[in-house]
């Protein structure tokens, strides 16, 4: 090789090195099987954390996220002495277990199972409220099963200060503050009785009444202390999305992620201690809330959330139109508590990672570099989405799940799906969904690689594509966005 060729190759290598230095090479992503939402005995589950970790390990899980309940405390007090005449039910939770102890317990499992990544999180219960009355025997606890999964918190203080109706929201001065001062009237009235008492037969009755007023004043003053109202309490009806948005904003401020748990779960036939427990599906709340990370698609999000044109597509289209600051992502939520009901791998979240650590997992959840998978049965063969990218047909650029491709030409989807060798003849279908509408369906068996070049081009518009793959198991990809630029020489402002 002569010197000119050597010099040329060295220059080319230097150019490539400095051109791509620091840029993410998406081809380096690897797939990791994860399970999110494990409930241990820390908060009412049937299995201790180490046993759940063993089950996950034996099932081949690579990433396991515990989400025990932040608080499990419910209180109903009878007016007007809610502090004195009340019933409190409290069960195990992260708060009662100890936030620092919880972090140490879950994180410590990584030493026992070094092949896995085991992370701590929480299933937050932001709010519930009472409907009806104890006296009329129609008391109902509303929205007690409306939960948010919280992950990515680092410190015990982050969990300790997580907003929750169970711990009581911070109190504030409000018009109710003046009303809560009404027990002072007892002291004034008692003093008037005592000071006006004369030395006759009525005096004894007046003094007795003044003492009673004093005692009543003390009791009601203690009951109303500290003469301020909490931001949200369970006695003044539903508060809409506000308590949940408070939790979302708090977690965002600490670098964590929030996913609505079981948004279509219906809890209307349960009863505890003569009280009905009612939580209706709350998928429509996801249209009202802002800046949360995503929602659980499997197994309780398939009726309203994920069908083409459903709630999820409405939210994603809001984002594309600039009506929402950020998109939202889908995950699988196993909600695993024991082995008697279903497999720990029933619903999975598959992560696209370059390295397996807590920071990378949290960032993948934030960026939408995950997809949701659901097995229809414990022995169902699992479909694997090996590749889903969108390429620019005019130049060598592409985008992966959660990313955005900017192009002036029509996009090309590249998809690769595989099944175990034992299920190579099993059929499945792949629906390509563009901005809420199914535009194409592939039907195939076994390992399949395919491309689809969409002819849709609309300058200045932002759209997205996502996949719904259904067969012996089901996969829901997260979206890839495409922003069509204006043709050269026809830019705005020119």
**What gross morphology would you assign?**
elongated
**Number of folding domains?**
3
Strand content: 25-35%
Main beta sheet strand tally, sense and closure: 15 strands, mixed
Count the strands? 27
Based on the coordinates given, report the CATH architecture of the largest domain. Answer: Alpha-Beta Barrel
CATH class membership of the largest domain: Alpha Beta
CATH superfamily of the largest domain: Metal-dependent hydrolases
The helix/strand class is: alpha+beta
- The CA-CA distance between the termini, in Å, is 51 Å
Q: Supply Rg.
A: 29 Å
Helix content: 25-40%
Q: Kindly report the CATH topology of the largest domain.
A: TIM Barrel
Protein described:
The protein has helices at residues 3-20, 49-58, 94-97, 99-112, 156-160, 175-179, 184-195, 201-224, 242-253, 285-288, 311-320, 358-367, and strands at 30-38, 63-69, 73-77, 86-90, 117-124, 129-131, 140-142, 148-151, 171-172, 229-230, 257-260, 267-272, 275-279, 294-298, 329-332, 347-353, 370-375, 384-392, 398-399, 404-407, 411-418, 427-434, 437-445, 448-453, 462-470, 473-476, 480-484. With 494 residues, it is an alpha+beta fold. It has three domains: 24-170 and 232-375, Metal-dependent hydrolases (TIM Barrel); 175-230; 379-494, Sandwich (Immunoglobulin-like), CATH 2.60.40. Helix 7 packs antiparallel against helix 8. Mean pLDDT is 88; it is low at 4-26.
């Amino acid at each position: 090789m002569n010197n000119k060729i050597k010099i040329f190759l060295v220059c080319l290598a230097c150019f490539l090195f400095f051109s791509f230095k620091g840029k993410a090479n998406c081809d380096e992503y690897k797939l990791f099987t994860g399970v999110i939402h494990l409930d241990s005995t820390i908060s009412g589950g049937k299995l201790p954390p180490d046993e759940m970790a063993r089950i996950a390990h034996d099932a081949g899980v690579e990433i396991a996220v515990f989400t025990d309940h932040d608080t499990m405390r419910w209180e109903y007090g009878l007016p007007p002495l809610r502090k004195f005449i009340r019933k409190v039910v409290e069960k195990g939770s992260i708060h009662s277990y100890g936030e620092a102890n919880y972090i140490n317990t879950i994180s410590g499992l990584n030493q026992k199972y070094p092949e896995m990544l085991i992370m701590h999180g929480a299933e937050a219960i932001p709010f519930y409220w009472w409907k009806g009355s104890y006296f009329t025997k129609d008391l109902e606890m509303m929205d007690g099963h409306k939960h948010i999964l919280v992950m990515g918190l680092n410190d015990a203080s982050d969990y300790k200060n997580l907003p929750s109706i169970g711990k009581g929201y911070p109190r504030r001065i409000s018009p109710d503050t003046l009303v809560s001062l009404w027990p002072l009237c007892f002291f004034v009235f008692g003093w008037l009785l005592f000071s006006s008492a004369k030395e006759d037969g009525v005096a004894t009755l007046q003094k007795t009444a003044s003492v009673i007023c004093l005692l009543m004043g003390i009791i009601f003053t203690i009951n109303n202390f500290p003469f301020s109202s909490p931001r949200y309490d369970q006695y003044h009806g539903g508060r809409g999305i506000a308590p949940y948005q408070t939790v979302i904003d708090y977690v965002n401020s600490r670098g964590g992620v929030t996913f609505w748990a079981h948004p279509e779960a219906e809890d209307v036939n349960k009863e505890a201690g003569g009280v009905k427990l009612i939580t209706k599906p709350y998928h429509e709340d996801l249209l009202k809330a802002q800046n949360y990370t995503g929602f659980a698609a499997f197994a309780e999000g398939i009726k309203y959330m994920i069908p083409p044109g459903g709630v999820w597509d409405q939210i994603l289209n809001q984002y594309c139109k600039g009506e929402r600051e950020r998109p939202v992502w889908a995950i699988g939520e196993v909600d695993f508590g024991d082995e008697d009901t279903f497999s720990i791998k029933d619903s999975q979240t598959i992560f696209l990672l370059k390295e397996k650590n807590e920071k990378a997992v949290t960032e993948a959840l934030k960026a939408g570099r995950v997809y949701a998978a659901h097995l229809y049965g414990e022995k169902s063969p699992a479909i694997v989405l090996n590749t889903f990218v969108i390429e620019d047909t005019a130049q060598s650029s592409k985008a992966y799940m959660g990313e955005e491709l900017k192009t002036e030409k029509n996009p090309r989807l590249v998809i690769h799906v595989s099944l175990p060798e034992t299920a190579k003849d099993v059929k499945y279908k792949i629906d390509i969904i563009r901005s809420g509408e199914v535009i194409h369906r592939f039907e195939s068996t076994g390992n399949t690689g395919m491309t689809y070049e969409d002819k849709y081009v609309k300058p200045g518009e932002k759209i997205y594509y996502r996949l719904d793959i259904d067969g012996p198991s089901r996969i829901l990809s997260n979206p890839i966005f495409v922003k069509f630029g204006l043709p050269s020489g026809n830019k705005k402002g020119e």
